[in-house]
Design brief:
Blueprint (H helix, E strand, L loop, with lengths): L2 E5 L5 H7 L9 H9 L29 E8 L5 E8 L8 E12 L6 H7 L1 E2 L3 E5 L3 H13 L13 E5 L14 H10 L17 E2 L2 E2 L2 E7 L8 E9 L11 H5 L15 E9 L5 H17 L8 E9 L6 E2 L16 H20 L4 E3 L2 E3 L4 H11 L3
Helix pairs in contact: 4-5, 7-8
Length: 391
């Protein structure tokens, strides 16, 4: 029986303990969380990509109304996976739909619900992230959760959106170890507080650039002269390449990077899910343009989008001016112009890059199935950053 840990600011330690199913062989979730808290985020190392300032939490939840929770499933042996839920606003996502768009960097992956989002340009459910072979179970569970909500009694169609990365290296992925109850707990637990990062939720069993990957988040708030809007990013990192951080060649210096072996057996395969939220009133057309820019942030970290890697970006706007209300015969929107989108493009590149660094820096080592994926060695990273920092 797997240990569960739900991560959301609104949940107390006692509530987490009550939700857990304990195994004597499993490591303490509290101890694992303490290790994660002792690890720095990128800004604590002096790595602050770009020119715009982050929001107060430096997370996707800086966008008003956006809520996040991660539920980690860990039996201390073979199962290391989880669910991360991103809820777009405080109301019912189906009855009050947000405009949305999807950009595909490389389509080696499963993004349930993507075709309808691309066709209609809107979300009608929260977004779930999980492991590859669990996406359909998660989609089914979220459908049950959604149609049980007040006001949904006559709904006969629903488009759940669920993304994934493959955590099969550390997780017994063929057992498909998530349940409908766990999915519903994650959705119910979503909070607008700081986002827990690292080896949690859908990032529990992931790897990035040969080190431990995970969940990471960051945000940018534009100055009033550029609209004052906020852009927030959440990532699930499980991909490879040649890691660089703030321009420093971390992967090369640590001797761990794609194509180090001349046979080319390590090519940086994997996947990265990127979720973008903004309070800027963007149409789905300009949200698609915003989503495409996130790939530039991923590229700055050293990712190459290899053949065996799936890079998917989902972007949505929470602005009430562009909300699509169920049963409204028509709606009028006040969108930003194309020209006004440029600053948001820069903001999303910066936030994506920093979110990826945070996912790795906060991640803790995980051992399972005869292998260990080590956390990025912080002290060595500090030394490399210091050597390459401009004098």
């Amino acid at each position: 029986m797997a240990r569960l840990a739900i991560s959301a600011v609104a949940i107390s330690a006692a509530a987490i303990s009550a939700a857990a199913m304990l195994l004597s062989a499993a490591p303490s979730p509290a101890r694992a969380q303490t290790r994660a808290e002792s690890r720095p985020r990128a800004r604590e190392l002096g790595v602050a990509p770009g020119v715009f300032a982050p929001g107060p939490k430096n997370a996707i939840t800086d966008v008003t109304g956006v809520r996040v929770a991660s539920l980690t499933i860990d039996d201390g042996a073979k199962i290391h996976t989880g669910i991360t839920a991103i809820v777009p606003h405080e109301g019912n996502a189906y009855l009050s739909r947000v405009p949305a768009a999807i950009h595909v960097g490389n389509a080696f992956g499963k993004l349930v619900g993507s075709t309808q989002v691309r066709e209609l340009g809107e979300l009608e459910t929260p977004i779930l992230l999980t492991c590859t072979l669990c996406v359909w179970k998660a989609a089914d569970a979220m459908t049950e959760w959604m149609i049980a909500q007040p006001g949904m009694e006559r709904v006969r169609s629903l488009n759940p959106v669920v993304g994934e990365t493959n955590d099969g290296g550390l997780n017994d992925i063929r057992s498909r170890p998530i349940t409908a109850e766990q999915v519903k707990k994650a959705l119910d637990a979503a909070s607008d507080g700081p986002v827990e990062e690292g080896s949690v939720g859908a990032g529990r069993g992931t790897s990035a650039f040969g080190w431990k990957g995970g969940i990471g988040s960051s945000s940018r708030r534009l100055p009033a002269s550029l609209g004052g809007h906020t852009v927030g990013v959440l990532v699930q990192t499980n991909y490879g390449g040649v890691l660089q951080m703030g321009g420093a060649p971390i992967g090369k210096e640590l001797g761990q990077y794609a194509y180090k072996n001349e046979t080319g057996t390590e090519r940086g395969d994997g996947s990265c899910m990127i979720v973008i939220a903004t309070d800027a009133p963007l149409s789905d057309r300009n949200l698609q343009r915003l989503a495409a820019r996130a790939m530039l942030g991923l590229g700055r970290t050293g990712g190459s989008g290899s053949n065996g890697s799936g890079e998917f970006v989902i972007a949505f706007s929470t602005a009430k001016e562009v909300r699509r209300v169920w049963d409204a015969k028509r709606y009028t929107t006040t969108e930003l112009s194309n020209e006004e989108s440029s600053a948001l493009f820069e903001a999303v590149i910066e936030a994506t890059e920093e979110a990826i660094y945070n996912s790795m820096l906060k991640a803790t080592s995980v051992s399972a199935n005869g292998r260990t994926v080590e956390a990025l060695p912080i002290e060595k990273v500090k030394e490399i950053l210091a050597r390459y920092r401009p004098k």
